[in-house]
Specification:
Layout (H helix, E strand, L loop, with lengths): L1 H35 L9 E2 L2 E4 L5 E6 L10 E5 L4 E12 L4 E11 L7 E5 L13 E8 L2 E8 L10 E6 L13 H6 L3 E5 L22 H13 L4 E7 L1 H12 L6 E7 L5 H11 L4 H12 L4 H4 L23 E6 L7 H10 L4 E6 L7 H4 L1 H13 L8 H7 L1
Parallel strand pairs: 10-11, 10-12, 12-13, 13-14, 14-15
Antiparallel strand pairs: 1-7, 2-3, 3-6, 4-5, 4-7, 5-6, 8-9, 9-11
Helix pairs in contact: 1-6, 3-4, 5-6
């Protein structure tokens, strides 16, 4: 019965193709939702071997030896479902037999580190604004859906640069505390610093759809921060953006009615193009390229908004500052690790090559994402200082600045 056999083969083939198609749709849907659905917790996957108490009562932490835990610099360890936090200093010992490293514990901000069993490696050396060592105040910024909390740091009278402000914007899945690493150098440069929150970050009011917009909508909350700064005397503003915060800064600088007040941007591990960034992450996760491109289609589609829960589709073209490099008109300092495993360094290199007149790229040997300051704080801060002092608009009024652009 060759005919019946052929029919069975065709039927099995169709079923297999249908199953593959459904699996592809499901995979693309999962990918698209992962991009825009906020996550307020992370898996604590880094095991803690033990905590040692030295004779003077100070602590040391023993962790599995990895590229990150062996890295030079200062880092932090979140534990107890994010309720505990410790700041970690340099490596003091490597145990090759146990494949572990022992690092100094500079301080424990919260929680009982001795009871912890696992945690998350992080760059949040400062978990609270008071740890920076500079006076600050809590302020509230009116935004679309209510009021967003922010921290304001005013420089000392002896170094204050009248009218100069810095607005610090954190990354995806992060909190305002992640940007505190940029406060000391901004203070030394005489800038008043405003550390903002934005929609769906767990601090600011959520958007109507409760979804990340990859900078497409979040920039409006930064614009609200810009308005606050101007109403309090800001004449020239530097935007400090970290990861997603960099993408938000780029949008704010382009779209803000007060764009002439933005003198430049300091971007740490920036997202210049979401397709490049998301494709690189998907490849690292082993996701097939067609599935990823279908995910992009879902994000862009008005008809498929129900899949992601987005109120409006995301225009990936408008967020592509590699394709739009000719439209950039602000000086930009990019601080990026060549081994960034989340935001491709090559995108920063390409941006710098496309606009060498505006973009200065400083490369770091950081192990991981947004850890440039952690591995070499002196280099990070000196790069910011040198760049700031070279700004062509540093001594001009907003009107003169606009005329020069």
């Amino acid at each position: 019965m060759p005919g019946a056999t052929s029919h069975r083969v065709v039927k099995i083939g169709l079923l297999a193709a249908s199953a593959a198609l459904l699996a592809g749709v499901a995979g693309a849907t999962y990918f698209a939702r992962q991009v825009v659905v906020p996550k307020y917790s992370r898996r604590e996957g880094l095991k803690l071997r033990t905590v040692h108490t030295r004779g003077d009562g100070s602590l040391e932490i023993e962790l599995p030896a990895t590229e990150q835990t062996r890295a030079h610099g200062r880092y932090s360890f979140w534990f107890d479902q994010g309720m505990g936090h410790a700041c970690l200093g340099p490596v003091v010992q490597s145990n090759h037999d146990r494949s572990t490293v022992i690092r100094e514990v500079e301080r424990v901000d919260s929680g009982d580190l001795k009871q912890a069993r696992a945690g998350i490696w992080s760059g949040y050396v400062y978990s609270k604004p008071g740890q920076v060592g500079l006076p600050y105040q809590d302020v509230e910024i009116p935004v679309d859906n209510g009021v967003a909390p922010a921290w304001r740091f005013d420089p000392s009278a002896g170094v204050a640069t009248p009218g100069a402000w810095a607005i610090h914007i954190h990354g995806m899945g992060g909190k305002r505390a992640g940007t505190l690493r940029g406060i000391p150098v901004a203070g030394r440069l005489g800038m008043t610093s405003l550390v903002v929150s934005f929609r769906n970050d767990g601090d600011a009011p959520p958007s109507y759809d409760g979804r990340y917009n990859l900078g497409q909508g979040e920039w409006r909350d930064v614009e609200a921060g810009i308005n606050y700064a101007i109403s309090n005397g800001a004449e020239r503003i530097v935007l400090f953006g970290w990861s997603l915060g960099a993408a938000i800064a780029l949008q704010a600088a382009a779209l803000s009615p007060n764009s002439s007040r933005v003198a430049g941007m300091v971007l740490d591990a920036p997202v210049f193009d979401w397709r490049t960034t998301l494709a690189a992450n998907a490849k690292a996760a082993g996701l097939p390229r067609p599935l990823v491109h279908f995910g992009f289609t879902i994000l862009r589609s008005k008809a498929l908004r129900w899949v992601t829960g987005l109120a409006e589709p995301i225009c990936l073209d408008s967020l592509d500052w590699l394709a739009r490099a000719s439209e950039l008109n602000k000086p930009i300092l990019v601080l990026h690790g060549a081994k960034d495993d989340t935001t491709p360094f090559e995108a920063s290199r390409k941006a710098a090559s496309l606009r060498p007149d505006l973009i200065k790229l400083v490369e770091f040997e950081a192990q991981g994402h947004s850890l440039e300051w952690n591995v070499d704080a002196e280099k990070w801060e000196q790069s910011v200082e040198d760049w700031f002092h070279s700004l062509p608009l540093a001594g001009t009024s907003p009107e003169q600045a606009a005329a020069q652009l």
